[in-house]
From TrEMBL:
Species of the source: Streptacidiphilus alkalitolerans
Family classification: Belongs to the thymidylate synthase ThyX family.
Source lineage: Bacteria, Bacillati, Actinomycetota, Actinomycetes, Kitasatosporales
GO biological process annotation, one example: methylation
Reported function: Catalyzes the reductive methylation of 2'-deoxyuridine-5'-monophosphate (dUMP) to 2'-deoxythymidine-5'-monophosphate (dTMP) while utilizing 5,10-methylenetetrahydrofolate (mTHF) as the methyl donor, and NADPH and FADH(2) as the reductant.
Cofactor binding description: Binds 4 FAD per tetramer. Each FAD binding site is formed by three monomers.
Molecular function terms from GO: thymidylate synthase (FAD) activity
Binding-site residues, dUMP: E111, E112, S113, A114, R115, R183, R210
UniProt protein name: Flavin-dependent thymidylate synthase
EC number, as in UniProt: 2.1.1.148
Catalytic activity field: dUMP + (6R)-5,10-methylene-5,6,7,8-tetrahydrofolate + NADPH + H(+) = dTMP + (6S)-5,6,7,8-tetrahydrofolate + NADP(+)
Length: 256
C-alpha cells in the first residue's frame, strides 16, 4: 500500500451547511488477497500428469525436485502448468487504475456498480512522493521531480473539480435522475472496489507489464498507480509460490 494519506475538506462551491458533502481525498491504493488456491506443488502436479497420469495428484517430491522442474518449465516457457491455481484480490483504487487492471482480459472481474448504489465523495490525489512531471516521448518517457508547488496545485485543482462534479451528481439524484445517468459526471479519480481473480501465469504476465524493473528482459514503464497494485499482488505471489516467483525472476520476468 502506498502512503495512507487521507484528507477531508468541505466541497467548495456548495453552501456551508451541516448536510453539505465533505470530500475525502486519499492517496492510498489497497490490494487484499481474499481467497486463493496456489502453490508450487500444484504446478508440478499439473506438469507431471503428462507422464504419470492420475498418480500425479499424489506427488510429494522434495523442494529440490519441485524447484528444478519449475525452473525448467519457466525457462522452456511451458506455461499451462501455471494455470491450475487461482488468486482472488479485492482492490480499492481510483477508477482510472481499475481500468488499467481490466485491460488484462484473461482475468475475471466484479466491480461495484454506480447503477445500484450511490457513490461516496472519495477521490484520489497523488501523495507527496508521486513524481508529477514527465520527460521524453510517449512510451519512452521518465517521471521527474518538478516544482515544489506541484502537489499543492494538483490537489487544489482536483478538489475544486471533484466538489463541483459531486455537487452536480447529488443534485441529479435528489431530482430523481437515475443513478446510471447521474454517475456520468463523476471523474475517473473516484474510488471504486473490484474483485479480481487470475491464475499465476496471468499474474506473471500482468507483473511483467505493470512493474518498472530495468533488469527485466522486456522493461516496462507503467503508470505509478497501477504499479502500486502490481507490487502488492507480487508480494502475495512470492509468499504463496516462492519457487515459481524465484524462477520468474531468474528468467527475466517473462511469463511462461
Amino acid at each position: 500500500m502506498t502512503s495512507e494519506n487521507t484528507t477531508t475538506l468541505p466541497a467548495r462551491g456548495i453552501p456551508a451547511d451541516p448536510d453539505a458533502p465533505v470530500l475525502e481525498l486519499r492517496s492510498d491504493i489497497s490490494v487484499d488477497l481474499v481467497d486463493h488456491s496456489a502453490s508450487d506443488l500444484s504446478v508440478v502436479r499439473a506438469a507431471r500428469v503428462s507422464t504419470v497420469g492420475d498418480d500425479a495428484q499424489y506427488e510429494t517430491k522434495g523442494d529440490g525436485y519441485v524447484a528444478g522442474l519449475i525452473d525448467y518449465l519457466m525457462k522452456s516457457r511451458h506455461g499451462s502448468p501455471f494455470e491450475h491455481n487461482y488468486l482472488t484480490f479485492l482492490i480499492t483504487a481510483p477508477i482510472f487504475t481499475v481500468r488499467h487492471l481490466m485491460r488484462h482480459r484473461t482475468w475475471s472481474f466484479n466491480e461495484e456498480s454506480a447503477r445500484y448504489r450511490e457513490l461516496r465523495p472519495v477521490f484520489y490525489v497523488p501523495d507527496a512522493d508521486r513524481l508529477l512531471r514527465q520527460e521524453g516521448k510517449p512510451g519512452h518517457y521518465t517521471y521527474v521531480a518538478g516544482d515544489g508547488d506541484d502537489h499543492q496545485l494538483v490537489t487544489e485543482a482536483s478538489a475544486a473539480v471533484y466538489a463541483k462534479a459531486y455537487q452536480e451528481y447529488t443534485g441529479m439524484l435528489q431530482a430523481g435522475i437515475a443513478r446510471e445517468i447521474a454517475r456520468m459526471v463523476l471523474p475517473v479519480a473516484t474510488y471504486s472496489s473490484v474483485y479480481a481473480t487470475c491464475n499465476s501465469r496471468a499474474l506473471m504476465h500482468f507483473l511483467s507489464l505493470r512493474t518498472a524493473r530495468p533488469d527485466a528482459t522486456y522493461p516496462s514503464h507503467p503508470q505509478r498507480e497501477i504499479e502500486i497494485v502490481a507490487e502488492q499482488m507480487e508480494n502475495s505471489l512470492q509468499k504463496l509460490m516462492p519457487l515459481t516467483h524465484a524462477a520468474y525472476e531468474a528468467h527475466g520476468r517473462v511469463s511462461p
